[in-house]
């Protein structure tokens, strides 16, 4: 089945530790995205990538880093510089254009203790 | 940053009621308007993409209209069912062309049996 997978579903980390969230897609999509959702907020864009080895900052990139070494994979690292890392993180992909329909993964809930 | 507004924030209706809610966006530099449905414990899924003023789209009991001149879209649900309970998100690219989607905060619909 084609789709987007994110792992793990729940993640707990101690304050000050970096943590990497996985996102993999087998839809052959060029573009991939990371969003963050907090209670009462919409989806806010962290980073996006339109092509392998290239990515751009979204609206709230501070404290996060990404890589796009393979078309299928777009991991997100939440660094210790992110002041409020506890949130729900969604990964998505789209065929080519950034304004195209996006397909979402199931999300990872990160809790920093 | 483009401002996409949704109202109401939440809505409770009885099974069988019809309902509608609104997405507002700046009418200048309009490119496309997306609607997504996000059920609890699932991934957001695309409902409609609309690009032309006056567009109407329908999927079962759910339909949407678009007014690009005044900057709004309505989502209608006819004869609401408990399975329609979800958060409905709208999104629009921040500028014309190849720019990322900006999401509204969503309307949370609860259909009471």
Summarize the structure.
Chain A is an all-beta fold. In chain A, 0% of the residues lie in helices and 49% in strands. Chains A and B meet through strand 5 and strand 10 of A and strand 5, strand 9 and strand 10 of B.
Description:
The complex is a heterodimer of chains A (113) and B (113). Chain A is an all-beta fold and 113 residues long. Chain A is 0% helix and 49% strand. Chain A is built from no helices and 11 strands. Chain A has strands spanning 4-7, 10-13, 19-25, 31-37, 44-51, 54-57, 64-66, 76-78, 87-94, 103-104, 108-112. Chain A is globular, with a radius of gyration of 13 Å. The model of chain A has no long low-confidence stretch (mean pLDDT 94). Chain B is mostly beta strands and 113 residues long. Chain B is built from no helices and 11 strands. In chain B, strands 2, 4, 5, 9, 10 and 11 form a 6-stranded mixed sheet that branches. A 5-stranded antiparallel sheet of chain B has the order 1-3-8-7-6, with no helix packed on it. In chain B, a hairpin with a 7-residue loop joins strand 9 (86-93) and strand 10. The mean pLDDT of chain B is 94. Chain A binds chain B through residues 4, 33, 35, 40-45, 48, 58-59, 90, 97-99, 101-107, and chain B through 1, 4, 31-32, 34, 42-46, 49, 89, 91, 93, 97-106.
Question: Which descriptors apply to this entry?
Answer:
heterodimer, A: mainly beta, 49% strand, B: 113 residues, mainly beta, 5-stranded antiparallel β-sheet, 11 strands, globular
Task: Name the biggest interface.
Answer: A-B, 23 and 24 residues
Q: Helix- and strand-based class of chain A?
A: mainly beta
Large-scale geometry of chain B? globular
State mean pLDDT of chain B (0 to 100 scale). 94
Which structural class should the secondary elements of chain B be placed in?
mainly beta
What is the count of β-strands of chain A?
11
The helix tally of chain A amounts to 0
Helix content of chain A: under 10%
Which word captures the global form of chain A?
Answer: globular
**How many DSSP E strands of chain B?**
11
The Rg value of chain A, from CA coordinates, equals 13 Å
- Report the oligomer: heterodimer
Order of helices and strands of chain A: EEEEEEEEEEE
The end-to-end span of chain A amounts to 36 Å
Hey, roughly how much beta strand do the residues of chain A contain?
over 45%
């Amino acid at each position: 089945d084609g789709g987007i997978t994110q792992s793990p579903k729940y993640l707990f980390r101690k304050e000050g530790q970096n943590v990497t969230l996985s996102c993999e897609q087998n839809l052959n999509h060029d573009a991939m995205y990371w969003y963050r959702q907090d209670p009462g907020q919409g989806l806010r864009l962290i980073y996006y990538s339109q092509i392998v080895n290239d990515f751009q900052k979204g609206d709230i990139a501070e404290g996060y880093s990404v890589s796009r070494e393979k078309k299928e994979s777009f991991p997100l690292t939440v660094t210790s510089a992110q002041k409020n890392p506890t949130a729900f993180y969604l990964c998505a992909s789209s065929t080519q254009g950034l304004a195209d329909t996006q397909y979402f993964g199931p999300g990872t809930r990160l809790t920093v203790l | 940053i483009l401002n996409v507004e949704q109202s109401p924030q939440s809505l409770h209706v009885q099974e069988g009621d019809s309902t509608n809610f609104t997405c507002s966006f700046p009418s200048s530099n309009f490119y496309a308007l997306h609607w997504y449905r996000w059920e609890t414990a699932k991934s957001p899924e695309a409902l409609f993409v609309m690009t032309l003023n006056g567009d109407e789209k329908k999927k079962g009991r759910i339909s949407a209209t678009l007014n690009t001149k005044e900057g709004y879209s309505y989502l209608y649900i006819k004869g609401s069912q408990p399975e329609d309970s979800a958060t409905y998100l709208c999104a629009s690219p921040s500028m014309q062309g190849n720019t990322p989607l900006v999401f509204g905060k969503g309307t949370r619909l609860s259909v009471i049996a």
